[in-house]
Design goal:
The protein is 0% helix and 53% strand. It is mainly beta.
């Protein structure tokens, strides 16, 4: 299983960014997929999940600002991030639980 995340970058507070993750080597349509993030010297933290039936779960810190979605034809999972805050700065990882992770993409939000 391989996960390739992209779409990170440097934005200003209040702006939006969409992360993408392409997944291969698994039956994507049956998988729950997720996004996590990590800042230096802190544990990786949960951001959002989306099930195979499009049920979504969000961390309280991003609820109402971030939207997770998926495209089962393209084997892609997305994270739309609106109203970004400096505290959203982190490396974002896509995740195929329990053990598969993408390589991470850096998101930096300036104040």
């Amino acid at each position: 299983v391989q996960l390739q995340a992209s779409g990170g970058g440097l934005v200003q507070a209040g702006e939006s960014l969409t992360l993408s993750c392409v997944v291969s080597g698994t039956t994507f349509s049956r998988r729950t997929m997720g996004w996590y993030r990590q800042v230096p010297e802190k544990p990786r933290e949960f951001v959002a999940f989306i099930s195979s039936t499009w049920q979504t779960t969000y961390a309280d810190s991003v609820k109402g600002r971030f939207t997770i979605s998926r495209d089962s034809y393209r084997n892609m999972v997305y994270l739309r991030m609106d109203s970004l805050k400096p505290e959203d700065t982190a490396v974002y990882y896509c995740h195929d639980p329990p053990q598969y992770w993408g390589q991470g993409t850096q998101v930096t939000v300036s104040s």
